[in-house]
Design a protein that fits this description.
The complex is a heterodimer of chains A (about 170) and B (about 350). In chain A, about 75% of the residues lie in helices and about 0% in strands. Chain A is mainly α and about 170 residues long. Chain A contains six helices and no strands. Chain B is an all-alpha fold. Chain B has one domain. In chain B, strands 1-2 form a two-stranded antiparallel ribbon. In chain B, helix 5 runs antiparallel to helix 6, helix 6 runs antiparallel to helix 9 and helix 9 runs antiparallel to helix 13. The chains are: A mainly alpha (about 170), B mainly alpha (about 350).
Chain lengths: ~170, ~350
C-alpha cells in the first residue's frame, strides 16, 4: 500500500462512518457535527482527485457557513431527546423499504453503465486547479455561469424582501 | 517500506518545521499576554506586572502555572464530550492557519532549498480563509455544551459576528489576488518584493481586512462574545483551569497568526523594505534568518496595534457591529474590488 491508498481507505472509512453517525445519532447537535466531519472527509477525497478548489470551497461554504447556520437553528430551538417526536414502528419499516427500493433502482441503473470501466485519475489531471477551472468557467461555460450568478442574486434579493419588517 | 524510504527526509523536515512553528506560536502568545498587560499599564499610567522576575518577565509562566494548578470543574448539566472538545477545537483552528505562511526566505542547503513554510500549496490564501470560517465551531460548541444561557447567547453572537465579517474579508482578499494573479502565499510575497507592497496599492483593502481580522479574533472593539457587563464572561464562563487557558491562549495565537497573515498579504511578508538583499552576498542561511527577523518585527508591530486598539476604543453595541459589517464594510469592499479590477484592466491594455 502506498500513501495514496492508505489515505483513500482512511478517508472512505471516515466518510461512511460519519455519514452513518449523522443518521443514527439521537442528538441533533451530534448529527450536525458528524455531518461536518463527513464534509471534511469528502474534501479530502476531492484533494486526492486534484480538485483543490472544489475541496476548499466545500469546506468554506458547507462546513464553514451552511453548517454554522444549521447549528445555530438547532441550538436556538433547544432540541433534546425528550422533545424528539416519536415515530411509529410502521413508519420506520416503510422508510427502510423505500430507501432499499431506491438503492435497488440505482444499482440496477448503474450496473451496466459505461462508467464502470472509467477510473478516477488520482493525483493527476489539472482541471481541478483554480487557474484551469477559472479559465474554463469564464470561457466555455460563461453563459450558464453568469445565469447562475443572476439566480443567486435574485435569491439574495428575495431573502432580503422576506426578512424585511413591514 | 517504499513509502517511508523515500519520504523519510521530507517528513522529518516538515515535522521539525511544524514543531518549531507551534513552539514559536506558543512562545509569542505567552509574551503577548505579558505585552498586553504591560501596554495596558503604560496606557493607564501604572506599572503593570513587575513582580515575577526583572520587569515581571516571568509573569506569563506564573499565569500559566496558576491556571494549570486550578481546580478543574465540569458542570453537571453540561454535555461532557463537547464541553471538552470546545477548547481543543479553538486551539487547533487557531494553530492550523500557520501552515501556509512563509516564515522566511528559503534556506539553501547542499540537498536543495528548504522552504520555511510547511505547505506551499496552490490554494494558500483560501486555506487561511477556510480555517477562519471553521474557527467558529470552538466557540459555538463550547458555549452550547456549557448549558448556560449566557454562554449560549455569547456563542450565537460570536458565530454570527464571525460569519458576517468573513464576507468583507473575502472581498478585500479578492483585490489582493487581482494584484498577484496567484493564491500561493509564497508568490504573493514574491510579487510584493518585486512590485512594492500591497499596502501602497490597496490601502482601503488593508483597512477593511484589518477591521475584519479584529472581529474574527474577537478583539475589542468587537469582543461582543465575551462582553462581561452583559454576558458575565460569555462563552467561556463555565470553564476553569487549563480549558479556560486554552480559550484565552487561542485568542492570542489567533492574534499572532492573523498578524502574520496581514503582514504576508499587505506588508511584503519576509521582504526587507527599500533594499535588494540579494546583492549583499551574504550566506543564504543568514539571509533567511534576517528575513525571518524582519517578518517577526512586522508581526510585533501588528500585535502592538491589536493591543493598542483594545485599550483605546470602547466596545461596539451589537446592532452597531452588524450595521458596520453588512451595510458599510461589504459595500466598501465591493467598491474597492471593482475599482481595483477596473484599474488593473486599464493598465494592462
Amino acid at each position: 500500500m502506498n500513501i495514496i491508498q492508505i489515505l483513500f481507505w482512511f478517508l472512505s472509512v471516515l466518510a461512511i462512518f460519519s455519514a452513518l453517525m449523522v443518521i443514527t445519532s439521537k442528538n441533533p447537535i451530534y448529527s450536525v457535527l458528524w455531518l461536518i466531519a463527513t464534509f471534511f472527509a469528502i474534501s479530502g477525497h476531492y484533494i486526492m482527485l486534484n480538485a483543490q478548489f472544489l475541496a476548499i470551497v466545500n469546506i468554506i461554504v458547507y462546513a464553514g457557513a451552511i453548517m454554522v447556520l444549521f447549528l445555530f437553528v438547532i441550538m436556538l430551538m433547544n432540541l433534546n431527546k425528550e422533545t424528539e417526536p416519536q415515530k411509529s414502528r410502521w413508519l420506520k419499516i416503510a422508510g427502510a423499504l423505500a430507501g432499499g427500493c431506491l438503492l435497488l433502482v440505482l444499482v440496477a441503473a448503474l450496473k451496466n453503465s459505461v462508467t464502470k470501466e472509467q477510473f478516477a485519475t488520482v493525483n493527476e489531471g489539472s482541471i481541478g486547479l483554480i487557474k484551469n477551472l477559472g479559465k474554463e468557467l469564464f470561457t466555455t461555460y460563461v453563459v450558464p455561469f453568469e445565469i447562475s450568478s443572476v439566480l443567486f442574486l435574485s435569491a439574495m434579493v428575495g431573502a432580503v424582501v422576506i426578512g424585511k419588517k413591514e | 517500506m517504499y513509502l517511508l524510504a523515500t519520504d523519510l527526509w521530507f517528513i522529518l523536515e516538515k515535522a521539525i518545521l511544524i514543531a518549531c512553528i507551534i513552539g514559536l506560536s506558543f512562545f509569542i502568545a505567552m509574551y503577548t499576554t505579558y505585552a498586553e498587560r504591560k501596554v495596558a499599564g503604560w496606557l493607564q499610567d501604572r506599572h503593570g506586572p513587575n513582580r515575577a522576575g526583572p520587569f515581571g518577565i516571568f509573569q506569563p509562566l506564573a499565569d500559566g502555572g496558576k491556571l494549570f494548578f486550578k481546580e478543574e470543574i465540569i458542570p453537571l448539566a453540561s454535555n461532557k464530550i463537547l464541553f471538552l472538545a470546545g477548547p481543543g477545537l479553538a486551539m487547533i483552528t487557531s494553530l492550523v492557519t500557520s501552515t501556509v505562511i512563509p516564515w522566511g526566505a528559503p534556506v539553501a542547503t547542499a540537498h536543495g532549498a528548504i522552504p520555511l513554510q510547511v505547505a506551499d500549496v496552490d490554494m494558500g490564501i483560501l486555506i487561511v480563509f477556510s480555517v477562519v470560517s471553521v474557527g467558529v465551531y470552538g466557540i459555538m460548541i463550547g458555549g452550547w455544551a456549557s448549558n448556560n444561557k449566557f454562554s449560549l447567547i455569547a456563542a450565537i453572537r460570536g458565530a454570527s459576528q464571525m460569519v458576517s465579517y468573513e464576507l468583507p474579508m473575502g472581498l478585500a482578499l479578492i483585490a489582493v489576488i487581482f494584484m498577484t494573479g496567484s493564491l500561493k502565499m509564497s508568490e504573493i510575497v514574491a510579487s510584493q518584493a518585486a512590485n512594492g507592497w500591497h499596502i501602497i496599492y490597496q490601502p482601503l483593502g488593508f483597512i477593511i481586512f484589518f477591521v475584519c481580522a479584529l472581529a474574527e479574533c474577537n478583539r475589542t472593539p468587537f469582543d461582543l462574545p465575551e462582553a462581561e457587563n452583559e454576558l458575565n464572561f460569555g462563552y467561556h464562563q463555565e470553564y476553569s483551569s487549563m480549558k479556560l487557558g486554552f480559550y484565552l491562549f487561542a485568542e492570542y495565537i489567533n492574534m499572532f497568526v492573523s498578524s502574520a497573515v496581514i503582514t504576508t498579504l499587505y506588508f511584503g511578508g519576509y521582504d526587507i523594505p527599500f533594499v535588494n538583499e540579494a546583492a549583499w552576498g551574504l550566506e543564504p542561511w543568514l539571509l533567511s534568518l534576517i528575513s525571518f527577523a524582519v517578518l517577526m518585527t512586522k508581526i510585533a508591530f501588528f500585535l502592538f496595534l491589536f493591543i493598542w486598539i483594545r485599550w483605546t476604543i470602547p466596545r461596539f453595541r451589537y446592532d452597531q457591529l452588524m450595521n458596520l459589517g453588512w451595510k458599510k464594510l461589504i459595500p466598501l469592499a465591493l467598491v474597492n474590488m471593482i475599482i481595483s479590477a477596473a484599474v488593473m484592466l486599464w493598465l494592462r491594455k
